[in-house]
Amino acid sequence: MQPISTLTSKTVVLNATDVDTDQIIPARFLTTTSREGLGDQLFHDWRFQADGTPDTEFVLNRPDAEGCTILVAGRNFGCGSSREHAPWALLDFGLRAVISTEIADIFRSNALKNSFLPIVIDETPHEWLMANPGAEVQIDVQESSLTLPDGAVVKYPIDDFARYCLLEGIDQLGFLRNHIDDIQTFEEQRTWKP
User: Fold this and answer.
1) Domain 6-189 class?
2) 127-162 residue pLDDT tens
3) Are 152 and 125 in contact (CB under 8 A)?
4) Is the pTM of this model over 0.85?
């Protein structure tokens, strides 16, 4: 995992609410445990026409979306079934964060565990971002802030453990491995045994 402290990018706007995990990565593509290549199936049923050709009208297929790493989406992003493949597909496609007014809890948890940043902000700055695709913003993980093009700073919630893992570029297992000596010492010194 790559550490993430700040992220500066133009935004790409997905003007849709209640985007569920099956829309993010359709279930028929969940036949792998590898993260590689899942970006090719991201929003598959929206990005491609029935004959397999790209739908040039879909936002992620437009030239101005190229290089954007921050997705702005409508309310209730990531709802539906739990699947780690959803943040994997977003990351493999090149996105690093999603901004919305509401992000489903299970998706949020899976995203943070995989170094994908789900950001929940209030309606006013969100409405501005939705109306201004391509706006360049900066995300500061340490400060839990989003800086808009006019310099306005918007705070967003993130728990301390998730922030630590993002800044260090580790997941929960990596965190435990960093404390293996402490764990072994505890195991050796405790008076009761399982």
Assistant:
1) alpha beta
2) 999 999 999 999 999 999 999 999 999 999 999 999
3) yes
4) yes
